[in-house]
Write a structure and sequence with these properties.
Blueprint: E1 4-14, E2 20-32, H1 36-42, E3 46-48, E4 54-56, H2 69-79, E5 87-92, E6 95-96, E7 104-110, E8 116-124, E9 130-136, E10 143-148, E11 162-168, E12 173-182, E13 185-197, H3 201-208, H4 213-230, E14 244-248, E15 250-251
């Protein structure tokens, strides 16, 4: 199977107006959407569109529909003329003990020749809003892409800024560097990375012995927000957008 786990870490660092940094261990799932029925049959601790210790519901991603996630992603990419999509892999967290929160999930879209044609960065905030940033991809490694921010995410980061992505697509390892710029330049960056490991019953049993990754993410969001507030970082008022929206990004040229 192409589906697997990636064991690694997530790091966030703010450069101004006050320096702030944290890093924690993180295990990510890479799920080939075509393999979901097979995973449901072969892994006793995993369920597809039904309750389970670990469960993947299509309605938790994309437009929130109970079925047709791959078809929706395929149509998004192909309607923009970015290429024909044969396979879609999603880097994310499924539900664990019924709970799930993905601040960022990434779709990697491949053609029939197994060439990467597009990436989609799915950002979800704590106000149940979701935004997909769709960007073309090619054989450049790592990928370098950029997009204007369209979704309110953190009460300490303004809306008027830009994301810059530098991505090594999943293979034996993966790496995602996200930098945020405003009119004064870069003020924040995050690094998400991991090394491939098998997705099997033993790995899932061991994962149950640790705090669920989604719960860990949610607790970290609130704990780090408290630390930023105590440091006096200005609070940005919530800007309501839409429950689900898609926008396009572009290549960032080499400097």
């Amino acid at each position: 199977m192409r589906s697997c786990l990636y064991k690694g870490a997530v790091m966030h660092q703010r450069l101004r107006p006050h320096k702030h940094r944290f890093c924690y261990d993180f295990t990510s799932w890479l799920i080939d959407l075509d393999e979901l029925p097979q995973l449901d049959r072969s892994l006793k601790l995993f369920s597809y569109n039904r309750p389970g210790l670990f469960s993947f519901y299509e309605r938790d991603f994309g437009p929130g529909q109970p079925q047709g996630l791959k078809l929706h992603i395929k149509e998004l990419v192909e309607c923009q003329g970015l290429g024909s999509v044969e396979r879609v892999c999603l880097l994310c967290q499924p539900r664990c003990l019924g709970y799930m929160f993905n601040s960022l999930s990434i779709y990697f879209c491949y053609d029939a020749g197994d060439q990467l044609v597009a990436t989609i960065y799915e950002v979800t905030n704590t106000h149940s809003e979701r935004h997909l940033y769709l960007l073309a991809a090619d054989e450049r490694r790592p990928l370098q892409q950029q997009v204007r921010k369209q979704l309110y995410v953190s009460p300490f980061i303004p809306m008027d800024c830009r994301y810059r992505f530098r991505v090594k697509p999943p293979a034996d390892s993966f790496s995602v560097l996200i930098q945020q710029d405003d009119a004064e330049g870069e003020f924040f960056h995050a690094h998400w990375q991991g090394k491939r490991s098998a997705l099997n019953a033993t790995a899932l049993f061991k994962a149950l012995l640790r705090p669920p990754m989604s719960l860990k993410t949610t607790l970290a969001i609130h704990w780090q927000a408290l630390r930023l507030w105590l440091k006096g970082v200005p609070v940005v008022q919530f800007t309501k957008t839409h429950s689900y929206q898609v926008s396009l990004g572009q290549w960032q040229e080499e400097k």
